[in-house]
Specification:
alpha+beta; three-stranded antiparallel beta sheet; 38% helix; 31% strand
């Protein structure tokens, strides 16, 4: 069974680019997270519908014209799990 992720329902995220990092302010917690690529791009392609990490990787590959690569999917899966642990995205186990 795979994990699926989506943006948190009703969450407001405010992003501000700071050179090589991006500050992401999470309104519900009042916490500002400092993140690096590919996290801002992952947040950008997520929606309010649950998708798995392979779907997110495919969206990123299309948006940034990346080669299909197992490493991309692995990196995306790891970052999505971190975003869930930070409380920036919701997670569910796919049926």
């Amino acid at each position: 069974m795979s994990q699926q992720y989506k943006l948190r329902t009703g969450e407001t995220l405010i992003e501000h680019v700071l050179d090589s990092m991006t500050a992401v302010f999470q309104a519900s917690s009042g916490i500002t997270h400092l993140v690096t690529d590919p996290v801002p791009a992952i947040l950008e392609v997520l929606s309010d519908q649950f998708v798995d990490s392979d779907q997110v990787a495919e969206r990123l590959q299309r948006q940034f014209d990346l080669q299909a690569d197992a490493d991309v999917a692995a990196v995306v899966a790891a970052r999505l799990e971190e975003l869930w642990q930070l409380g920036l995205v919701e997670r569910r186990t796919a049926p």
